[in-house]
Amino acid sequence: MSNTEMGAFLKARRGQVQPGDVGIGTLPGRRVTGLRREEVAMLAGVSVDYYTRLEQGRERNPSPAVLNAIAGALDLDADRREHLFRLAGLVPTTRTPVRDTVDESLLELLAAWPHTPAIIINRHLDILATNDLADALYSGFAETGNLAMMTFVDPAGREFFTDWERATETCVANLRRALGHASTHERVQELVATLHHASAEFRMLWARHDVRGKTHDAKAFRHPDVGLVELDYNAFDIRSAPGQQLIVYKAITGTPSADKLRLLESLAATRARSIRDRA
Fold first, then answer.
1. Rounded-to-integer distance, Cα 272 and Cα 132, Å
2. Which of 140, 180, 178 is nearest to 160 (CA)?
3. pTM of this structure
């Protein structure tokens, strides 16, 4: 991993931490956005020269203790801290090969959930497998190969994601996290180059160096057939296939969104029967 990437990450995060967030008082008229290098060095207990070399990519072997101290100074959460350690080459790499094929047992599991949209993705947000209800949920998109491309490039994305700005931020933070994994680094770079060319919003967000993984959240979608659907999702790492995640959506029982999900399931089944009848 390039030391310049670690340096760029540190510089970007430093610019987004306010002095008050880490207990530093400021005088009126301060013009610096975020923390100064001197302040990060002081909080981390390292010399200003050493921290400067880290940001400039000239320091190649920071110790775990130093990175922990800098992570604390920059108030990094768990995802960002892990990303920093990956950029420094201090996280063990898996010996299990990364693959984009989905195990047959997982495909059977997806099919066994006809009332719940479920998908399997990889680190760079390719959709590797879906069940029928997930296909119905994403039916308004021209292509459903990659969540980031769907969000930034497909015109349907701005309408489908009711909080489009939040969806874009999440995609970029997920891709930035994926960039820290050596096994997917090159493929993420290719995707980032495509998105960088296609979207000004992506270019702006990518420069922020935010990092976040998928865990649990609530999302609202505007489907062309059933309207607004509000769903919770949980993300599960697939231990037998490192880099793959199972994403399962669920509507709260008794809500209008649960009714709309059933309607969507019915519409999808009707269309499938119509296709079979014409075949």
1. 10
2. 140
3. 0.84
- With 0-12 CB in 10 A as exposed, 13-18 as middle and 19+ as buried, what is 34? middle
pLDDT of residue 95 exceeding 60: no
Q: 3-state secondary structure string, 59-74?
A: CCCCCHHHHHHHHHHC
Query: b or e along 43-82 (b: 16 or more beta carbons within 10 Å of the residue's beta carbon)?
Result: bbebeeeebbbbbeeebeebeeebbbbbbebbbbeebbbb
Locate 75 and state its tokens: 């108030």
| Residue 240 three-state SS | coil
Q: For residue 90, what pLDDT band results from cuts at 50, 70 and 90?
A: confident
Length of the chain: 279
- The tokens 């495509």 sit on which residue? 194
Per-residue DSSP letter, 265: H
Confidence class for position 74, pLDDT limits 50, 70, 90: very high
For residues 74 and 17, the answer to whether their CB atoms sit within 8 Å is yes
> Is the separation of the CB atoms in 158 and 221 below 8 Å?
no
Confirm if 245 and 237 have CB atoms less than 8 A apart.
Answer: yes
